[in-house]
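Pipeline run #58 for the internal structure catalog. This entry was flagged by the ingest filter as a single-chain record with no existing model, so it goes straight to prediction. Upstream metadata was stripped on purpose; only the residue string is passed forward. Reviewer on rotation: M.T. Logging verbosity set to normal.
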Amino acid sequence: GLGEENVDEVGAMTIKAR
C-alpha cells in the first residue's frame, strides 16, 4: 500500500512524502 513511513500490505516498508 501507499502512504507515509508505514508497513506495506506485503510487509515491505514504504517511505513516501506526505
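catalog note: The chain has no helices and two strands.
catalog note: The beta strands are 6-7, 13-14.
status: ready for reviewer M.T.
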